[in-house]
Amino acid sequence: MPTHHFHDQYISADKIVAVVKELVTDNAYHNITLEEIAMKMRCQVKALTVHFNHMDALLYRIIEEDFNVLTQMIVTIQYGDDNKIDKLNQLLVSFMEFGINLHHRYDLLFAFYTSNDKHSITEIAQKTYYRFEYAVLQLKEQQTEESLVYSAFIALHGFIQHHKGYVKDFEEIRSYAEAHAWFVLKGLS
Questions:
Q1: Mind listing the pLDDT tens digit for each residue in 137-161?
Q2: Distances from the Cα of 50 to the Cαs of 14, 32, 156, in angstroms?
Q3: Which pTM does this prediction carry?
Q4: Structural domain that includes position 6
Q5: Are residues 67 and 117 located together in one domain of the fold?
Q6: What's the domain of life for this entry (predicted)?
């Protein structure tokens, strides 16, 4: 066996996912290939396909994990110790921070569909959105229409789409994001 393939026996699905998350964080997901992953991991493509038979399966795993991270972030903020308005503001800002700092992976969450998995990805996205909606409705001091929460979500999404790739990281635009969060909060009144 050639020496550059000595890692094959130690390749796990979790290691593959970690490497691909790193690659997707730095590059658009549609530019990543199994060959590139194998080269980075110093293994053969065959070692990857033992765990993931195609690139879509690997990307789906990342999508699922990132939606779980977003959902956990929402829950943590929702049930945190701050007052309701501060938690609501933190929720909006944290959502934008996730989208800006991980913009290629954020794109993966909301733009990756194949004919094989569109339904399951949509289902996971909807669960995360409903968790967001529930948190916003619970944290609002007065009754808010669900359509306004959806508009708030779209406003956050628009902020992320507008700034992604143009800033090095979220800290460059934190003050703008915080102002945008207060603007969105006013719209929820």
A1: 999 978 889 999 999 999 999 999 9
A2: 13, 18, 39
A3: 0.84
A4: 1-53
A5: yes
A6: Bacteria
121 with 182, same domain: the answer is yes
∠ CA 25-166-39 to the nearest 5 degrees?
30
Q: From its phi and psi, is residue 42 left (phi > 0), alpha (psi between -120 and 50) or beta?
A: left
Q: Kindly give the residue spans of alpha helices, DSSP state H, lying in the chain.
A: 13-26, 34-41, 45-49, 55-78, 84-101, 103-111, 118-139, 146-163, 174-187
Neighbouring residues of 31: CB distance < 8 A, sequence distance ≥ 6:
none
Tallying the residues shown for the chain, one arrives at: 189
Kindly report, residue by residue over 11-69, the tens digit of the pLDDT.
899 999 999 998 887 777 778 889 999 999 999 999 898 899 888 888 889 889 999 99
Residues 38 and 89 in one domain: no
Residues 74 and 10 in one domain: no
Please tell me whether residues 82 and 141 are part of one structural domain. yes
DSSP single-letter state for residue 4: G
Number of Cβ within 10 Å of residue 121's Cβ equals 21
- Please give the Cα distance from 80 to 71 (Å, whole number): 14
> CATH no. for residue 10?
1.10.10
Distance separating alpha carbons of residues 101 and 172, to the nearest angstrom? 11
Q: Say if residue 36 is in the same domain as residue 69.
A: no
**What's the domain count of the chain?**
2
Statement to judge: residues 138 and 175 lie in one domain:
yes
